[in-house]
Amino acid sequence: MKWLLLILVAIGAIVIGVSTGPAEIPLLNVIRGVFGRADDLTNSIVRDLRMPRSLLAFLVGGSLAVTGAVLQALVRNPLAEPYLLGLSGGAGLGAVAAIALNVGGVWSVPVAATVGSLTAIALVYRMAIVAGGVLDTRVLLFGGVVVSAFSTAIMAAILVLAPAAELRNAMLWMLGGFNRASWLTVAVFGSYSILPLFILYRVRRSLDLVSLGEEPAQYLGVDVERLKRILYLLASVLTAAAVAVAGIIGFVGLVVPHGIRMVWGHKHGALLPGAFLLGGTLLVTADTLARTVVAPIELPVGSVTALIGVPVFVMLVRRWVK
Amino acid sequence: MIKASKATYSYPGVKIAAVESIDLELQSGEMLAVLGPNGGGKTTLLRMLLGIVDPSSGSVEFEGKAASDWSRAALARKAAVVTQSEEPTFPLRVADAVLLGRYPHLRDGVRMGDADRGIVAEAMERTDIVHLADRWTQTLSGGEWQRVRLARALAQQPRLLVLDEPTANLDLRHEMEVFELAAALVAEGMAALAVTHNVNLAARFAQRVLVINQGKAAVVGPPGEVLTADLLGEVFGWPVERFEWKGVPQFIPTRKNGAPG
């Protein structure tokens, strides 16, 4: 029942996303357009512009939410998510560097971004392991902020030195957005994310156990060191793929898993698919808002998610950091 | 079941070994209590016996195979550990927390079956937590949480049960119940390894005791033979008196300067 509801809401959000815009397309025409049976203009808007855009926003939102849920189990902290832990910043820096060095094709940018996000999480993790090898929650978040700030600074420097024509485009990208969405970017994102998402669902029980702590997880049969390597790698790949196609979008990974946890509890068998559906719904909706509230100007979608995410973050900090 | 020969472990960069040259053997149907002061190497010994850390020298075998060669999953089907403390990041329902003990037995993609639920129900009954089933873990008292984790360990259906300070948070009744339960499981053929400060309960329930001090085995053997007032006085750094009670030795720490009581 709850799954049906979540799926219906997700489909509804995508349909609204496709029908809303400078040219309002009524529901019936959206459906006709999907099958190429409306007029040529509507067909083109639905199939070439809005469908790939909504689909990409959905996939990226779902993946960021799953990544947030996984990071929370892994570092055992409800405040963990790709943006706050610096993964997104690192991925952005990797992508910008690749483009500045002229090696940034649509397929290779995600690879450069992955290198960036892996480096970022390694740095943050090293900082957070304080004397005695204990992962300190506060240092972890602090490390994430520092790495993010550093990445943003370097990115800004690269952008200033870049040719003027690319500057505006790249700035928008740093703020996050789906204005460059196409079936090609959907394909790129899909190929980078499908395997990581599948593997994360496979290790859902290990995620339940590792949430208890590393030592209890080991005694309940988890090879924790191996699991950690896999999870850090997959979280980095997913974040990087998202940043490569849509720029830096924060807080989806924070808000969404928290919402699912409150309603369905903490078992990853339900949490991961639930977070994927709700994360996708949230980001499609945020994107629809971003391009309609002050149309024809398009807000960066990251601004919209931050408007929702920051209050939730403050609420979580008050509850968890005592 | 467990056999350690001259097992030694030194932390990297530390000259003095945390555990030095320990020999021990534990069979099915036997409880071994590991006694010793805080920081004496008991927990490090446990971690070595369970393959979490490799011995720096010597060997540790579990069922004839080096403990560190076991996969964590295979070992979790044979040995269950109740650690000293555990803080779940996200609250769970008690019944769900106990179900986690079945995870090592579930093949990938296989759902929890009626057999698993039956095992969990029995584990919850034996640890007296049935009435807590719907409670959230973070609302439990220290003792209740300890029993939930014990139930989870029983749900693993282990052949070896390891208890690290099992009764640190428990009141008198639940402390006795944990040891009685462990004794019953041992009578059914399980092996039990209990790390504890409680010398008197160890002397009453364990067939053999290992006293370690500064990483070395002071003595190992049946409590009635090896536990003396002199030994415990030296190991714990406080004078004790020994007396016999129903055939087992019991110890009382004495007051300073002969004060009464």
3D structure, described in words:
The complex is a heterodimer of chains A (322) and B (261). Chain A is 76% helix and 1% strand. Chain A is built from 14 helices and two strands. In chain A, helix 5 crosses helix 11 and helix 12 crosses helix 13 (268-292). Chain A is globular. The model of chain A has no long low-confidence stretch (mean pLDDT 88). Chain B is of the alpha/beta class and 261 residues long. Chain B is built from nine helices and twelve strands. In chain B, the strands form three sheets. A six-stranded mixed beta sheet of chain B has the order 6-7-8-3-9-10, sandwiched between helices. In chain B, strands 2-1-4-5 form a four-stranded antiparallel beta sheet. Chain B has a two-stranded antiparallel sheet with strand order 11-12. In chain B, strand 9 (208-213) and strand 10 (216-221) form a beta hairpin. In chain B, helix 4 (114-126) packs across helix 5 (142-155). The longest helix of chain B is centred in the C-terminal third of the chain and has 16 residues, at 172-187. Chain B is globular and about 60 Å long.
Tell me briefly what this model is.
The complex is a heterodimer of chains A (about 325) and B (about 260). With about 325 residues, chain A is mostly helical. Chain A is built from 14 helices and two strands.
